[in-house]
Amino acid sequence: MEFITQHPILVVSLVKIVILLFLTLTTLAYLTWFERKVVAHIQSRWGPYYVGAHGLLQPLADGVKFLFKEDVTPPGADKVLYILAPSLALTLAITTLALIPFGPATIYIFGQPTQLVIANVDVGLLLLFAITSLGVYGVALAGWSSNSKYPLLGGLRSSAQMISYEVSMTFSVVGVLLLAGSFNFNELIEHQRGYYHYLPFIPRWHVFPQIIGFLCYITAAIAETNRVPFDLPEAETELVAGFHTEYSSFKFAMFFMAEYANMITVSCLATILFFGGWLSLFPDSWTWTHFLPGALLLLTGIYTAYDTVMNMRGIARIQFAVVTLLALGLGVLCLLPGVMPVVQGPFWFLAKVLAFLFFYVWTRGTLPRFRYDQLMSFGWKLLLPVSLLNLVVTALCIIFPVLVNR
Amino acid sequence: MSLAFILFFVFAIIAVAGAVLLIVAREPIHSALSLIMVMVALAALYLMLSAEFVAAVQVIVYAGAIMVLFVFVIMLLNAGMEERTNWSKVAKYAGLPLGVFLLFELAHWLAHSAIGASVANGSEATNAAVSTRALSKMLFQKYLFPFEATSFLILIAILGALVLAKRDE
Fold first, then answer.
1. What is the pLDDT of residue A76?
2. Does B4 touch chain A (CB under 8 A)?
3. Model confidence over A341-374: pLDDT tens digits?
4. Residue A198 gets which letter from DSSP?
5. Residues A183, B4, A105, A169: is their CA dihedral positive or negative?
6. Are A155 and B75 within 8 A, CB to CB?
7. Cα torsion at A229, A235, A241, A244 (round to 10°)?
8. What pLDDT is recorded for position A355?
9. Residue A282 touches partner B, C-beta closer than 8 Å
């Protein structure tokens, strides 16, 4: 007990970790729903519709299905590594979220100063890259330990792809680091505060001076998370399902969740580095924008209330009534004077992250897959030189400030 | 008992256990993974000495890049179990006493020297907290020549590897 009172950081961190873990796992589940819905609408389909209102209980049904499926371990598999691989993939993917700041450096909850981040590290960006760079082992080990040919080929492909694109991804963000002069996420975000002198309606987000860096980053990031059009490790026409062919039941679900968690991390990083993190799109003096989070939630609530009354029947009506109450309750909560300043940071941050997640799903619904040799030559012969060139030009602009008109 | 004290022993034990596993394991991929374990545990120890930059770079370079290539090669060659020859018996019976001897020698030296005393007092550790900016200034100003010389050395090594790989054609 004395030990805990001496180290209050343990308790505070534990509370934050539990909250973040709960929110992340829920988000991961509903991200699958979001993806299926958006892809369905791109292809003029309905998507999940029958399990719950608008398919809202589909993630729950999927989870139950994964839990009750038979857990097969292939004969001749390396048992320890076969179990270690999915756990490693999921653990590392979720750990990175501990470094992401969801709101301003210091906020006051019940009068107590606190931070909306679990670990505010000086070299946050480097540490994040360190953790994500270990993620390749989950995929490589899964391929190796399955003792099967398709997973091995998938694992090899994916480790080669992840190493190749990690180089470009790291180089593409160095430009931003040079501009801000810090590895710390909060300092990186604070550097983007304010508006351009000659164009007062454009915020000073890094995406404008670093547009090439951003394009390189987002391309490399999609490849790094093994998503379409770079989903070669699980190209089903060639490799059955790639590295997780032999996985079933909950271990398969863990790979699935790791992929989505990586998508979230990469989107968070893009938001922080290029789109001003938790900074608002509007100037601080426009106080009416503080009503936005609450107003948007209330509008959602009003729409779902309309939908409940007009279109829903039976049990779906009850489920949608719960959704309506949740949206309205949260909306009113966000408008309370004590809560309103607290939710501003997280609102803008999450809105930007959601935009990136939509972009991810959009590309999946639109683009065809690369061929493997195309993927490699694209990564090494185009993406890497361009990101290097961007870095050199940025460095020159900083050494000779005459070139940049800030 | 402070938190740092407990954490030090946790990570130290992980590092030593990983090093022992690296030697004992007969499957090459298990050895490679044990080495990764050692490197990550060392990075955690660096982090506790407030050397955040070094810790992150340790993981990115060693665990995230070099060891991935090791694992990659092991997977590509599908290397089997390690073979035990007569020489491995020599390693077992001569290597173990020598290793223990080295350990005691190191412990003795650390206990009776000025560096050891300052480490025990914690004075070295508190001075070690350097910002990334200071570190890079040191690297690119004070130690510029050794730094550039090292980069040339690595370039030559890459060229050598290329020449060796292309010799057959």
1. 76
2. no
3. 888 888 999 999 999 999 989 988 888 888 888 8
4. S
5. positive
6. yes
7. -60
8. 92
9. no
pLDDT given at position A53: 78
Instruction: Compute the average pLDDT of residues B19-43.
Output: 89
Nearest chain A Cα distance for residue B61, angstroms = 8
Counting beta carbons within 10 angstroms of the beta carbon of residue A302, is it exposed (0 to 12), middle (13 to 18) or buried (19 or more)? middle
A123 vs B: CB within 8 A:
yes
pLDDT for B117: 64
One-letter amino acid for residue A186 of the chain? N
Spell out the domains of chain B, with CATH numbers in brackets: 1-82 (1.20.120.1200)
Strand partners, A372: none
- Cα–Cα dist B18/B31, whole Å: 9
Token couple for B45? 């120890």
Strand partners, A107: A114
Q: Return the closest-CA partner of residue A370 out of A201, A252, A222, A257.
A: A222
Rg of chain A on CA atoms, in Å? 23
**Cis omega (within 30 of 0) for bond into A75:** no
Pairwise CA distance, residues A306 & A317, whole Å? 11
Helices (H), A275-314: 292-310
Chain Cα centroid distance, residue A320: 27
Are the CB atoms for B64 and A162 separated by under 8 Å?
no
Rounded distance between C-alpha atoms, residue A304 and residue A298, angstroms: 10
Of residues B10, B72, B75, the one with CA closest to residue B37:
B10
What's the token pair of residue B106? 């190191």
Kindly determine whether residue A140 and residue B72, on different chains, have CB atoms separated by under 8 Å.
yes
Q: Which residues of A touch B53 (CB under 8 A)?
A: 123, 126
Q: Are A114 and A75 in contact (CB under 8 A)?
A: no
Overall size of chain B counted in residues: 169
A64-A68-A72 Cα angle (round to 5)? 135
Cα-based distances in Å from A241 to A29, A84, A153, B5, B130: 21, 19, 11, 46, 47
Alpha helical stretches, state H, A191-230: 211-224
- Confidence grade of residue B148 (pLDDT, cut at 50, 70, 90): very high
- C-alpha to C-alpha distance for A356 and A338, rounded to whole angstroms: 30
Name the average pLDDT for chain A: 84
B166: its two tokens: 């292309």
Rounded Cα distance, A220 and A165, in Å: 5
Return the number of other C-beta atoms located less than 10 Å from residue A145's C-beta: 25
What is the per-residue pLDDT across A290-328, written as a single tens digit (0 to 9) for each? 888 888 889 988 888 888 888 877 888 888 888 889 899
